[in-house]
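In this section we walk through a basic example: taking a raw amino acid sequence and producing a predicted 3D structure, encoded as C-alpha cells. The instruction is simple. Fold the sequence below.
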Amino acid sequence: MQAAWALGNIIGDNKEFRDQVLYYDVVTPLFSIWQPLNHPDSTSAKHVAVWTYANLCRYRSADWSKV
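The resulting C-alpha cell sequence is shown next.
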C-alpha cells in the first residue's frame, strides 16, 4: 500500500513523472491491489490504488493505451 501511495505522489507531481511511471507499466500491478483481499486494510489499499490511478489520468496528454 505504501508503494502505491508513493507512486501516486510521484505521478501527481507532473506529467513527465507520470509518463515515466507509465513507461514501466505500473497499471497492471496496481490493478492487483483491487483484487479481493481478506485483510483488515483492504479497503484502505483499494482507496490508495484508486487515488493513484486517478493521478494517472490527471494530465491531458496521457498515453491512454497504457492507462
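Looking at the output, two observations stand out. DSSP finds four helices and no strands in the chain. The longest helix spans residues 42-56. In the next section we compare this with other chains.
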